[in-house]
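If your schedule permits, I should be very grateful for your opinion on a structural question. I have a record of one protein: its chain in single-letter code and its fold written as discrete structure tokens. Would you kindly read the sequence against the tokens and tell me how you understand this chain to fold? Thank you for your consideration; the sequence and its tokens are set out here.


***
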Amino acid sequence: MYRLIYKSSSAVEVNWDMVRDILRKSTEHNVEAGITGVLLATEHHFMQVIEGSYEKVNETFIRIVKDERHKDIWIVSFGVIDARIFHGWGMKGIGVFDINRDIEADLIRKYGEEDGGLRFPLEEWMALALIQDVQLIGGLPTWKAGQQGEPDY
């Protein structure tokens, strides 16, 4: 089992329609390929964790690199893991935009600022800590692949 974490800049401003489209297109592939993970999005950046077999993680990442919505893609980490963190999540999207500005300010104080929003770290442990922090904050919008309508809060 392998885990890949990357961060990228968005070619255009990110919104829920874009996050939904990304998750919708990945749903069928991820279930078939045994891929799990999470996508975090700010207004200008993405950070994604992809877990699965070596071949499937690589195939998925190659597709992402070719996606014109991404630019300036950085691999944060890629390596062998003992167990999935995101077991049971075909892919879940978490929007760190349109949120309470106090929450955003707290996350920026802890992880830094980039392009006027939350900075996604380039260290694996910090990226996973950020995801954990975001998950623990109640009221952030989330969207699961296959979900219809507006994000959950």
